[in-house]
């Protein structure tokens, strides 16, 4: 589970030449959804062809776009391709977060995807019954789980009436022990996945008694991540939308908390005499050139009209040709694309924040104070 969206994008932006980028709302939300999708697809490919996309890459994009997705509307598709191969094909839940992009150039455009979140994180959804449970590993921004597993415990005596010489109390104690054993096995699998996947959130839903047993059995780390939906999502007639809405709410809360904490840290650091933080586009560009930025904040709208130079090697971006040093100049690109690309290539975290909160269109938390040389 190391093939993350960020890893694929980072690999892509290292390579230059012949990239086609497509960001398009292909939701089937009208009377003839199949015809609508076909019309949009043909129009998009024609425009890419006119912009200079090669035929092999157009065929690859056509094949990818023509495959049924089975995704609920609304959704958006982000694809980048070159040399006859689709490198990233990311369906994004919800309507388009910005204008459509149909671009052919030396580099793929990553700006459209930043609105949906490049720095995705994993989370677990665990649905339990008294005789087992299901665990799904999800990643933010993706429709479908990247891993699913089911555990079923012993069911031979779960629903038997007391008989065969058992007392009613002994029967109940035996059944309770089976439930505990089953949830203990399930909790061990959750603990293993928490260690392996490092999720930011564990959502627990399902049978009320099984939920309690599972939560009691979880290890300390898993329990600290767990949030409980106090509804039986596995009973007959349960509404799946209830779980989906709860998960979306919890994921949004994690994202909001992360951004709030990061912006608070930025303000705190900027107030110090020797701040390990900076703000302003020029200052952020310089921090990225030094691989000094740990977290980069951008306001998408505020950077819309700014341009920078993308470079083919370290330091990856520049404001002027004279700043390129020995690195080849690829060309002028939008500032958002240049900043996000450099952040990907220097392993900096990327967060969206309004300029009003940052005090500038861009800002950064630094790996070392601005007035100190890079550590050896």
TrEMBL record:
Molecular functions per Gene Ontology: hydrolase activity
Keyword annotations: Hydrolase
InterPro entries: Bact_RF_family2 (IPR040701)
Protein name (database record): Vms1/Ankzf1 family peptidyl-tRNA hydrolase
Organism: Amnibacterium endophyticum
């Amino acid at each position: 589970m190391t093939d993350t969206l960020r890893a694929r994008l980072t690999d892509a932006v290292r390579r230059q030449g012949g990239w086609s980028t497509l960001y398009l709302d292909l939701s089937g939300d009208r009377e003839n959804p199949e015809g609508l999708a076909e019309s949009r697809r043909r129009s998009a490919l024609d425009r890419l062809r006119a912009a200079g996309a090669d035929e092999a890459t157009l065929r690859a994009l056509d094949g990818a776009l023509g495959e049924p997705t089975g995704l609920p509307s609304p959704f958006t598709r982000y694809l980048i391709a070159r040399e006859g191969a689709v490198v990233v094909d990311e369906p994004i839940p919800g309507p388009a977060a910005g204008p459509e992009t149909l671009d052919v150039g030396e580099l793929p455009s990553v700006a459209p995807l930043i609105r949906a979140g490049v720095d995705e994180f994993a989370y677990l959804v665990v649905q339990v019954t008294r005789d087992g449970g299901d665990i799904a590993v999800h990643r933010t921004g993706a429709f479908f789980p990247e891993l699913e597993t089911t555990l079923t415990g012993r069911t031979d005596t779960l629903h038997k009436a007391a008989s065969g010489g058992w007392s009613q109390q002994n029967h109940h104690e035996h059944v309770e022990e089976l439930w505990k054993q089953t949830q203990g096995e399930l909790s061990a699998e959750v603990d293993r996945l928490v260690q392996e996947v490092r999720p930011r959130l564990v959502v627990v839903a399902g049978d009320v008694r099984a939920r309690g047993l599972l939560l009691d059995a979880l290890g300390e780390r898993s329990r600290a991540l767990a949030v409980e939906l106090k509804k039986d999502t596995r009973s007959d007639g349960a509404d799946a939308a209830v779980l989906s809405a709860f998960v979306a709410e919890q994921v949004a809360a994690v994202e909001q908390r992360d951004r709030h904490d990061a912006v608070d840290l930025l303000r705190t650091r900027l107030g110090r005499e020797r701040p390990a933080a900076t703000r302003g586009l020029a200052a952020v560009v310089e921090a990225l050139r030094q691989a000094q930025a740990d977290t980069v904040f951008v306001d998408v709208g505020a950077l819309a009209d700014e341009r920078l130079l993308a470079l083919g090697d370290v330091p990856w971006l520049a404001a002027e040709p004279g700043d390129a040093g020995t690195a080849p100049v690829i060309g002028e690109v939008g500032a958002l694309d240049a900043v996000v690309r450099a952040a990907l290539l220097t392993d900096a975290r990327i967060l969206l924040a309004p300029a009003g909160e940052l005090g500038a269109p861009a800002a950064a938390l630094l790996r070392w104070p601005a007035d100190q040389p890079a550590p050896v």
